[in-house]
């Protein structure tokens, strides 16, 4: 059964916004139980913000360099996101670690995508690390964000085979295709039924 009130989502991005686009297209198709309230970025001039503008969505920028220190930036980002009163915050290619103020304001409500099967290959270079390690299978993970680097509870994962001819770019493209679909599926699941993580029921209704 579709929720009477869609799940409210704020999306954070740092670059091209292809994950954001996947969520936009799902929400525009009809029947999707979530809606994007706003899009935030940590820098100006990125395609994710252009996508938000074309979609008529509110958008904002919170740059680290505009604040005296990381804690001040964290507080400013927290307030910028909180202004939209989201049910869930999606870190969709957002290339900054979220700080303690942010995570305290949105406990168990920040979701991230990662191009590996966590706990394998955390960090910024997951696809490169998988190729260098010579693994035959890697994949995509959607997980809750905690204070660590890609250490939060896993919500969903899907494997992607590593082909002998793969380089970092070709492998990453196939992972991103899975990542976009998996994120949309997770948002829909969170909106409709919540999820069970580490034996604990997480609900957004």
TrEMBL record:
InterPro entries: Formyl_transf_N (IPR002376), Formyl_transf_N_sf (IPR036477), GART (IPR004607), GART_AS (IPR001555). Gene3D superfamilies: Formyl transferase, N-terminal domain. GO terms for cellular component: cytosol. The record marks 150 as: Raises pKa of active site His. The keyword Plastid does not apply. Residues 9-187 form the Formyl transferase N-terminal domain. It comes from the Bacteria. (6R)-10-formyltetrahydrofolate binds at residues 70, 95-98, 112. Signal peptide: none annotated. It is an enzyme of class 2 (transferase). It catalyses: N(1)-(5-phospho-beta-D-ribosyl)glycinamide + (6R)-10-formyltetrahydrofolate = N(2)-formyl-N(1)-(5-phospho-beta-D-ribosyl)glycinamide + (6S)-5,6,7,8-tetrahydrofolate + H(+). The active site is at 114 (proton donor). GO terms for biological process: 'de novo' IMP biosynthetic process. Keywords: Purine biosynthesis, Transferase. GO terms for molecular function: phosphoribosylglycinamide formyltransferase activity. Its EC number is 2.1.2.2. NCBIfam families: PurN (TIGR00639). This is Phosphoribosylglycinamide formyltransferase. It comes from Amycolatopsis antarctica.
């Amino acid at each position: 059964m579709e929720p009477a009130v869609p799940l409210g989502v704020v999306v954070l991005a740092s670059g091209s916004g292809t994950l954001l686009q996947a969520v936009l297209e799902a929400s525009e198709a009809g029947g999707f139980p979530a809606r994007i309230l706003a899009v935030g970025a940590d820098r100006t001039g990125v395609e994710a913000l252009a996508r938000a503008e074309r979609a008529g969505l509110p958008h904002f920028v919170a740059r680290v360099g505009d604040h005296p220190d990381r804690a001040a930036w964290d507080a400013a980002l927290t307030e910028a996101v909180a202004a939209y009163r989201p049910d869930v915050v999606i870190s969709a290619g957002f290339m900054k670690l979220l700080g303690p103020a942010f995570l305290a304001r949105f406990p168990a409500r920040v979701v991230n995508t990662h191009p590996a099967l966590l706990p394998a290959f955390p960090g910024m270079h997951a696809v490169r690390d998988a190729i260098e390690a010579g693994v035959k299978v890697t994949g995509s993970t959607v997980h809750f964000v905690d204070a660590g680097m890609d250490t939060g509870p896993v919500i969903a994962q899907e494997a992607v085979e590593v082909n002998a001819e793969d380089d970092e770019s070709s492998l990453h493209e196939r992972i991103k295709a899975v990542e976009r679909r998996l994120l949309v599926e997770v948002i829909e699941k969170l909106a409709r039924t919540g999820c069970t993580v580490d034996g604990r029921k997480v609900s957004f209704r």
